[in-house]
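pls design
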């Protein structure tokens, strides 16, 4: 299994370019199910989850071209024939976002068979809200042998109010609603930029969606959608991870090709800590720090609040801030698995229920540590970048799920990091457990 070997101590200097958003690309690829025409997506990140989604679509009968490098991170998807509208357990178990095909499959094929995602490293993560919404739109859903079977000749528009804000739930039902008969009013929707990205693609395909990016979305159902070409927005979590990498190493880093407007909560918090953040034009941010950080509390919330997907990385930074930082995780019940590993590196962190209390600043020392999920891995990479000595991070396949060539990008700005093993090995694939 691949490992990272990281020698800490180098400030990160220079410019790093951010890839496309994994969490936008996944629903946008699923949206291609809704049309017989070709959908072309640009700025697709080269990460394992995208490869998993490609396999999922191909297993249903879609044609998917996925090209990187000179092909400019582009995918062309054609779902003219979907001979097997089923998301198999073997694929769903490695990537929970596979449940995103449920809504589009029912809308397009009148039926879907999707494996229940089951538990996950960071919490229970049910899909009851997806099911409830689809039933309200007329789908008949049964559950057997670990699979959901859904049927509906044509979904009908409905008034949906989410009991809880869910990102992929909003996306799944949005994709179901675009081909439904009549109008769907969705309330208490997720406002994440990834929902807005998906809605922009769907509208480019001929859908009639208003209000994406707000908590109320109105969809006027249409009878068919056509092909489109769409460019995925930059990944705000990758950008945020690099902002923290610049800050934690006392570096001077330009994070280019990002969307600063999507990073508001994080940037405000970095400034509170004493990190200098400057906007350099519409798509670049410069981060500088000379140490002397002050502790600041965070509480994870839905967008535009502080993202749960940045909580683990922020905790690594909090170990370097003077004073007590309280980190409250409100979205997932089991998202503190990085804590024990950070403590093994010398951090002073106590967890009580939803709250982790970090006392800093502490010197971190290198250690052999284990990555437990995607963002926890990022947190350990950040800690290793400042630990004295050489750290070895095991199970970095978690990192490969969502960060494109992270070690190359980090090396490019001065980090000492190398990989032992090969990227994307089949053995890793089998043992991968999904997180976000
Ligand atoms: C998405 C992101 C993930 C991020 C998360 C929260 C993708 C592929 N993943 O995950 O990176 O961490 O948003 O920002 O976009 N819930 C229910 N019932 C449901 C659905 C969700 O109770 O049917 C609960 C979950 O258990 C969780 C909360 O709602 O406590 C939010 O989850 P949700 O927004 O659905 O997360 P994902 O969309 O899976």
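designed seq:
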């Amino acid at each position: 299994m691949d490992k990272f070997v990281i020698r800490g101590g180098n400030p990160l200097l220079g410019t790093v370019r951010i890839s496309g958003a994994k969490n936008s690309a996944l629903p946008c690829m699923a949206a291609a199910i809704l049309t017989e025409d070709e959908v072309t997506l640009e700025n697709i990140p080269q990460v394992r989850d995208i490869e998993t989604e490609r396999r999922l679509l191909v297993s249903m009968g879609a044609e998917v071209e996925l090209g990187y490098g000179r092909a400019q991170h582009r995918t062309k998807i054609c779902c003219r024939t979907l001979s097997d509208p089923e998301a198999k357990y073997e694929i769903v178990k490695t990537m929970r976002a596979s449940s995103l095909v449920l809504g589009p499959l029912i809308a397009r094929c009148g039926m879907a068979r999707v494996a229940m995602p089951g538990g996950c490293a960071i919490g229970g993560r049910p899909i009851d809200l997806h099911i409830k919404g689809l039933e309200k739109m007329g789908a008949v859903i049964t559950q057997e042998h670990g699979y959901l079977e859904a049927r509906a000749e044509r979904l009908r528009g409905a008034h949906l109010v989410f009991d809880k804000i869910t990102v992929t739930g909003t996306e799944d039902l949005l994709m179901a609603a675009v081909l439904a008969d009549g109008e769907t009013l969705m309330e208490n929707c997720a406002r994440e930029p990834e929902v807005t990205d998906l809605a922009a693609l769907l509208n480019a395909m001929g859908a009639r969606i208003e209000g994406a990016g707000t908590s109320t979305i109105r969809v006027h159902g249409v009878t068919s959608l056509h092909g489109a070409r769409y460019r995925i927005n930059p990944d705000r979590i990758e950008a945020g991870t690099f902002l923290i990498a610049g800050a934690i190493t006392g570096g001077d880093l330009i994070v280019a090709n990002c969307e600063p407007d999507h990073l508001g909560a994080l940037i405000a918090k970095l400034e509170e800590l004493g990190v200098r953040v400057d906007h350099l034009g519409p798509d670049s941010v410069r981060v500088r720090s000379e140490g002397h950080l002050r502790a600041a509390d965070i509480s994870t919330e839905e967008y535009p609040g502080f993202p749960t997907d940045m909580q683990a990385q922020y905790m690594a930074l909090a170990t370097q801030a003077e004073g007590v930082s309280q980190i409250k995780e409100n979205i997932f019940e089991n998202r503190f698995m990085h804590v024990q590993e950070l403590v093994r590196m010398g951090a002073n962190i106590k967890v009580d229920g939803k709250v982790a209390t970090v006392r800093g600043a502490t010197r971190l020392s290198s250690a052999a540590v284990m990555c437990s999920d995607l963002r926890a891995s990022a947190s350990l990479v950040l800690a290793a970048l400042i630990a004295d000595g050489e750290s070895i991070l095991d199970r970095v396949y978690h990192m490969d799920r969502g960060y494109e060539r992270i070690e190359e990008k980090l090396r490019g700005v001065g980090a000492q990091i190398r990989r032992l093993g090969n990227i994307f090995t089949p053995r890793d694939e089998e043992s991968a457990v999904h997180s976000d």
